[in-house]
Amino acid sequence: MGSLPAVRVTPVRPFLNTGLDYAGPFSVKISRNKTGKAYLSLFVCLATKAIHLELVSDLTTTSFLNALKRFIARRGKCSILYSDNGTTFSGANNHLLELKEHLLKESTRTQIYEFLLEQFIEWKFIPPYAPHMGGLWESSVKLAKNHMRRVIGTTILSFEELYTILTQIEACLNSRPLTPITNDPTDLQALTPGHFLIGEPLNAIPENNVASVPTNRLTRYQLLIQIKQRFWTRWSKEYVAQLQQRVKWKLSSKTRIKEGTMVLLKNENTPPMSWPLGRIISLHPGADDITRVVTIRTSRGIVKRALSKICILPIEENVQN
């Protein structure tokens, strides 16, 4: 396996080197009996993995440039913009065939290049038919798009409502833990992309739980809250639970937990963003020398939890490898 590109490991401000990709289409409500399409434009920082999501109304050059202008206004001007090659920009997604054909037009590229030249932004393409070289933005699209489709389901939202959901998804993705900030056993904070953006993790506003309320009893505002809460439920049960798989007892001894490991304490009755971080201070192996219970130090004190109720952050093994 080759080394990571220099832009992935060079310390720079967020979004100085950015990857770009599109996803969609998503159905949006225009009027009572009329629907339209909208597309997701995703920007990902190659150094910090921070994500910026923009919703565009169509696949025209004007919409793309407007999304790029909004991104620059909020995140700062990028130096290099990376994307898939024109022949593979849409990948295997036939829904984006129109974008592929549009980007191949000479007039389109000329207009985009003129704007980027004015902004001193270099646009680089990965080689044709090599989507694996854009794995960072491909995986970011997968995180955003799959959860959106699962949570929204058949519900058709207006453009503004869908944009609101996307910004909340963006906050969620920018709050995911990357690595412990220090090796101090008493330090219970994890580094997130949000630290590079605002200096701390992005937090959600407390809201009443409406996940179990029937849809026909909700206002449009409450419907958005319910969609987000269902997203958090799926995130906690599907994604975060996968972090637990690396400590299955059938794995080799090198993946066993150890003192000082940072973990996330699961709680079915609270939003995942409120789950506390802690560090393991003691292991309690059974008679078969298999650890099923650990003692954890959190900011609120010392607690004891079963392994099924914690999530070990996927960090230690990656550092060793």
TrEMBL record:
Listed GO biological process terms: DNA integration
Domain Integrase catalytic: 10-201
UniProt protein name: Integrase catalytic domain-containing protein
InterPro entries cross-referenced by the UniProt entry: DUF5641, Integrase_cat-core, RNaseH-like_sf, RNaseH_sf
GO molecular function: nucleic acid binding
Organism annotation: Lasius niger (Black garden ant)
